[in-house]
Amino acid sequence: RTPRGIPLRVDGLRKEFGGITAVDGASFQVEAGSLTGLIGPNGAGKSTTFNCITGVHTPTAGQVQFNGENITGLEPHEVANRGLVRTFQIARELEEMTVLENMMLAPKHQRGESVVRSVTPGLRRDVVSQEEELREEVWEMLEFFELDHIAEVEAGTLSGGQRKLLEMARALMTDPEMVLLDEPLAGVNPTLEEKLLERIHELREDGYTFLFVEHDMDIIMEHCEHIIVMHQGKVLAEGGADDIRNNEAVVEAYLGE
Ligand code: ADP
Ligand code: MG
C-alpha cells in the first residue's frame, strides 16, 4: 500500500437529536496513512461524528466524502464496502461464540466480491478453498494480535483488553483502508494498551489510515501526528501536539471537565 491524498473529508457536519445539537458544523480532513487523533471533552460530539461518518446516523446537514465520493447518508455496510470501518463492540450473541468463530463471522472482503453460492461440484470446491483461505487469514490476524492462544475461548469471557483486540481484529477482517477507533483503550490494562498501540503503529506503517478518539490526551499527544479538537460539536483547534498543548481555547475547554 502507498497511501496518498486525503481519503476522508468532513464538511459542515451537523447532527441534531430533537433539541440537542450534538455536532454543530464540524469540518476536518484526514490524511492518508496518518494516525489522526480526535479529542475533546465529554459530550463534544466525537462519537456522534464517528456515527455520522460510518452511516450509523444520518447527518442533519453537511457532507462526508471518502476517496472523493459523497458517502453522506449511506448505510453502514455500504460505507464499510468502500473501505471505511469503525470498531464495534462484540454483540451479545457473539459473546457465546469463541474468538475463532467471531473472526470467521466477521464480514470478510465485502468490497466487490460476491459470495459464491452454487451447488455445482466445480464451484463447491471454490467455496471450500475460500473457506480455507479465510481460515488462514483469520489465524494470521489472530497471531498478529496475539489472540491465537485463546482462539477457542468464548468471547464473553475475555478481559476488557482482549475484547478490544478482538474488536479491532474483526474490523480489519473487512479489509478496510481506514479505521475509526472510538476509545479503543478504554478498560485496557497497561500491558495490552502498549500492545494495541504498537499494532496500530505497525498497521499504519502498512498503509492503513486511522482516526483515533481517546479520552487520555497524553496518549493522543504521544501517538498522533495530527490532532483535531472538538468542543460543543465544533472543531475548536487542530494541529500537532505542541500546537494543541499551547492552545488557550483547548486548555479552557478542558477546564470544565
Ligand atoms: P462524545 O463522544 O464527544 O463524548 P457524543 O457524540 O457521544 O460526545 O455526544 C454529543 C452530545 O450529543 C451529548 O450531549 C450527548 O448527550 C448527545 N447525544 C449523543 N447521542 C445521542 C442520541 N442518540 N440521542 C440524543 N442525544 C445524543
Ligand atoms: Mg464518545
Notable characteristics:
2 domains; globular; 23% strand; binds adenosine-5'-diphosphate; amino-acid transport; 4-stranded antiparallel β-sheet; alpha/beta
SSE blueprint and pairings:
Layout: E1 8-17, E2 20-30, E3 35-39, H1 46-53, E4 61-66, E5 69-70, H2 76-81, E6 84-86, H3 92-95, H4 99-104, H5 121-144, H6 160-172, E7 178-182, H7 190-205, E8 209-213, H8 217-223, E9 226-231, E10 234-239, H9 241-245, H10 248-255
Parallel strand pairs: 3-8, 3-9, 6-7, 7-8
Antiparallel strand pairs: 1-2, 1-4, 4-5, 9-10
Bound molecules: adenosine-5'-diphosphate and magnesium ion (MG).
Adenosine-5'-diphosphate is lined by residues 17, 20, 22, 40, 42-48.
